[in-house]
Amino acid sequence: MKGGGGGKEPPVEGEVSGKRPKRKCLQWHPLLAKKAPDFSEEEEEEDEEELEKEPVLCVESGAQEGESGGMEDESEEYSSEQRARRPMNAFLLFCKRHRSLVRQEHPRLDNRGATKILADWWAVLDPKEKQKYTDMAKEYKDAFMKANPGYKWCPATNKPVKSPSHSVSNARKKVWSLPSNPSKESSAAKKHPKTDSTPQLNFAMADPNKMGGLSMLLLAGEHALTAREISSSSSQTGCADVVKHTGKSALFQLAEISSSPVQPAGGSKNAEDTSSLTHVEASGPSQPSSPDLPKSCVKSPLFQLAEQISSSRPQSASEGRQCGQSALFQLAEMCLASEAEKMEARSSQPSGGSSSLCAQHSLSSRVTEEHEDTAELPITTTSSASSSSSSTSGSTSSSPTDTTPSYLSPCKTLKKKKKKKENKDSYENPASPKKPKKRHSPESDLDSVMFTIEAVAKGAWGSEETPRKKAHPSESESSPIMDQSPAVKKKTKPKPKKQLKLKDDDAEEEEEGDEETYKPQDVEMKTEEAPLTPKDECENEPDMKVEPPVGVEDTTPHCSPLHPTELEEKDTDSKPPQTRQEDREQEVKPETCGSRKSERSCKGALYKTLVSEGMLTSLRANVDRGKRGSLRGSVSDHEGGWNDESWGFSQAATSNPKKLKKSKSKEETTPGLGKLEEEFEKKFNSLPQYSPLTFDKKSVAITKKKKNSTSSPPEPPKPCKGSSSSQKKTLFHKIVNKYKHRKEKSSATDKDVVPTDPTVGAETSPVLKSGSPCMSPSPEPQKVLDTPVGSQKRKARKSKITHLVRTADGRVSPAQEDKSKDQTKNQDEKPFSQETLCNRGVCYNDPISVESDVTDASGGLPAFFSLAALAEVAAMENVHRAQRAVSIPTEGQVKDMAPVLISCADQ
DNA sequence: AAGAATGAAAT
DNA sequence: ATTTCATTCTT
């Protein structure tokens, strides 16, 4: 049948069933590049407008591939083929958001069942609410389209490519990365990749967006601190602009270089490159073995930085990169600090102590460590890392290796598998689920933010470093300082698997686990109200992203190692995973802790240099991104805007520092990926999550109104939890199967309507839960309108439904089951719903959310923190830090910075 | 790998 | 009108 689909598929992919191998799970893709030019709210609308500008971004590589972009390109090369996944529609978004809930309620239910339920919910959902999703979907789509102008939902028929199948399994590519070129489908050579791969191009994209992001962050901070945004915004912008080109590109290049394994040569090659880089930084230009031009460009700035730093720090010698990092960090910090300071006194010399810079210190200390640890370290970082993370890295490396592009990357598959595994585990061990995951409440976000920043900065350009650490974890000197390394290790061991998407999954899984555990009791009890659901998860959800994978608890994101003493404290605090407060404290602590060092001397110079080069900008951008990612969960405006920036890297960073590292090993390739996802997530999270309760209400209401509503469609039978669950379950399956069957048949041949069991009736109450525990939905038979119910795929509809409808009087045996199920479900749900709703939903702030269903809908955002709020908090934190940190010499630094900044601003 | 669901897009 | 495919994840 699919003939129409274009012949492309059938022949091509014959392997599967004629269809193309669907890649399922990837993340949707990031692209969306929109930019948020200013932090102001333009985002909402301007998407489109800006778009025009953006296009560049899309094109970026210019080559048609689209992907060439920088970092990602490696994978991307092939990507052209892969083409981005289409954006999710409203329903899918809804599903994604609520599936976990459903699952919680019915752990036993399989996905399909869940989907059905979701469909029901969806059907019931108020238009307003629906609209939210719809809007988001649209937004999403728009962004996506912008990103890839020529994108077609259906792959061009042309794609004769061939074989996607074999080459590698197609893993996910990171489509997200860049917009595929519009033409890609048309003919374009899919593969140019390599040529472009050279870093040179760099991202056109970087500019505008990044700036925006950065500026946003900074601005936000400023606002919070002082009210003055003025100069800052303008100044920043201006600076950014100037720098833009160079800066970003440079940064990116670095990142790419470091991260990108692209080199065909394989590990060795990578090593070389890296080394070259290192050299450059550290020793200077003299060493540059690498012929690559682009790099050289980058180098210079870096190099300078390195030098300066090194000068400041006596020791420096071999490891340039460290220096580089530190420098970057410093810069980042400086930027932040500077901005803060600016407000106060930008005049000439603010002696203000606001310096803060804990990060800096930490970094520096860290650097030192590294220094000692590995002067030479295997630069291979990438390669080494890859080796460690066998699968992922392997894939990555391999791909780049060949000249011939293996079209697909195995990623997807792997991912899925991984996920699955984990899920399984979780399932098996219910206990595990809870674990540490501390759900961070908003506060934690801050923490994460700081953390993120560091991570990001590091990750961004220092991919080298990270991996390296991993590779040689402790080894030589295990200075107490390293918090990360240990953490990393732990994590790695426990769950090396999921790196990318963990968050959601984890959360869900966990939830599930919890639920399951509880459930049994409930079932047995059958108490109507079932108090159970303790669910602390509430917080969880919102933060999920931030939260590291359950893994080990160590997740604590410490900012950085500090002095030993402090360190100790920190550790202590951090260790206990349980409390949130602790987490917070942690956050604070790190800040507090700064070890002081005098590095300020160079800063000014560095700063300048960076600025000139543009590094700063990029740096800042990175920082912002990181911050933003973690911070901004809210996305107050529904449309907020997807910034490509966001799409960039954050994901890993945000979620955990560890991840970052890990990710590198795993997929360094996709540095950017995270951001997009993150952005998406934020938005996604901002979407209201409705509790079952809500649906109940609605459903009821609807039922009354419409009466039929979903009635006919078989309610998704829910497996109940009770002891009998098994039976029910079985039944459930049967039913399901029937439906399925039905559907299939129908599609295949209308003829059979599945007369099958009349008994099946079971329509049960329309929609899910009616409120009363016992009640049976039966009351309203209303029959069906023709409206297509949602459930059974489209085909099924009326005719089928008909038979489904419960018999006049009642239910047939099967029906009974269903009912019972429903009842149970209802019970559970209700209780849950309320609590759940409160908690999870949205809630941080208000309880309102519960009712808010409706309200929410209208209102728009639930209570997520608004970006501004977050920013504020962040700002505050900074201030505090500064205050606390007073002892730190940073002041000087600050001073230095100020002038620089100013100058920058002027420019 | 199939499949449940909905929707957007393409055919 | 019909077919693809996006997401999730069990079976």
From TrEMBL:
A Pfam family matched in the record: HMG_box
Biased composition range(s): Acidic residues: 39-52, 70-79, 505-515
Coiled-coil zones: none
Protein known as: HMG box transcription factor BBX
Record region (Disordered): 1-84, 159-202, 259-298, 339-601, 613-677, 689-836
DNA-binding region, residues: 84-152
Keywords per UniProt: DNA-binding, Isopeptide bond, Nucleus, Phosphoprotein, Transcription, Transcription regulation, Ubl conjugation
Biased composition (Basic and acidic residues): 465-475, 516-546, 580-601, 665-677, 745-754, 816-832
Domain HMG box, first and last residues per copy: 84-152
InterPro entries assigned: BBX_HMG-box (IPR049523), CC-Dev_Transcription_Reg (IPR052412), HMG_box_dom (IPR009071), HMG_box_dom_sf (IPR036910), TF_HMG_box_BBX_DUF2028 (IPR019102)
Low complexity composition bias: residue spans: 347-365, 380-410, 720-729
PROSITE patterns: HMG_BOX_2 (PS50118)
Organism field: Carassius auratus
